[in-house]
Amino acid sequence: MISACLFDLDGVLVDTAVYHYKAWRRLAAELGFEFTEEHNEALKGVSRMASLDILLDTGGVRERYSAGEKEEMAARKNGWYVEYISRMTASEILPGVTSFLDELKTKGIKIALGSASKNAGLILENTGLGGYFDAVVDGSMVSEAKPDPQVFLLGAELTGTPPAQCVVFEDAEAGIEAARRAGMRSVGVGGSPTLRKADTLIPGFVGFTFEDLTKRID
Ligand code: B16
Ligand code: MG
Fold it and tell me: Per residue in 57-94, pLDDT tens?
């Protein structure tokens, strides 16, 4: 029985990875090294400070900076990122997402967000997705990042749903592992081979219905 669907944000409902990439690349350029789209793959679903460490490792400069300097760099990157996402609109919701959420609402299935992003609220507001959610858990509400299950367990609790009746939609391996540790089923979204541990895989939401979900997971 499925009573709640828990969604990751970046890469599942919207593609904010392009904006994260633009901002990280700008930071790397200021620090004097190149950061490619390929490097950026490793940052998907990873928290802001952990992402910065990965970026600094790419440039081979992590040891050069103090904790305070790293805080400042992360804040600088976030300032640019917020500037980019401030201009987001509903046109950036990924294809098929709105119809699937509409269907869940009609069927009385609870909808929750489980994102690592501390900017999730702004993205939901600008895209108009916010109204769908019975609960929103973002990076500012948890102390442990995915693959820790905290973000999804809190989402389940806030919607009053037992974990066994929750399904998580994720585009990152750490998120699929977080769902498993939370005792929830998972749907891997997108084509990444790193998602093979998900209970089922979908390329995206176009044409995907709740009936399809129950056929694959119930
Ligand atoms: P922020 P998700 C994640 O979002 C992004 O995939 C990841 O690239 C980002 O570093 C992280 O949020 C933190 O975001 O800097 O806005 O707090 O996939 O968990 O929705
Ligand atoms: Mg994601």
Answer: 999 999 999 999 999 999 999 999 999 999 999 999 99
Are the C-beta atoms of residues 120 and 138 closer than 8 Å to each other? yes
Could you tell me the two tokens for 67? 């904790």
Distance CA 165, CA 162 (A): 6
Q: Say how far apart CA 137 and CA 196 lie, in whole Å.
A: 25
CA nearest ligand 1 atom 12, residue: 117
Q: Are 123 and 88 in contact (CB under 8 A)?
A: yes
Q: How far is the CA of 31 from the centre of ligand 2 (A)?
A: 26
| Residue 215 CA, ligand 1 centroid: distance in Å | 31
**Ligand 1 atom nearest 170 alpha carbon:** 18
In the block, residue with structure tokens 């500037």: 83
Check: pTM over 0.90? Answer yes or no: yes
Please give the Cα distance from 47 to 115 (Å, whole number). 10
Residue 218: pLDDT band (50, 70, 90) is: confident
Q: Give the ligand at the shortest distance from the Cα of 116.
A: 1
Radius of gyration of the chain from its Cα atoms, rounded to whole angstroms: 17
Contacts of 41 (CB under 8 A, 6+ apart): none
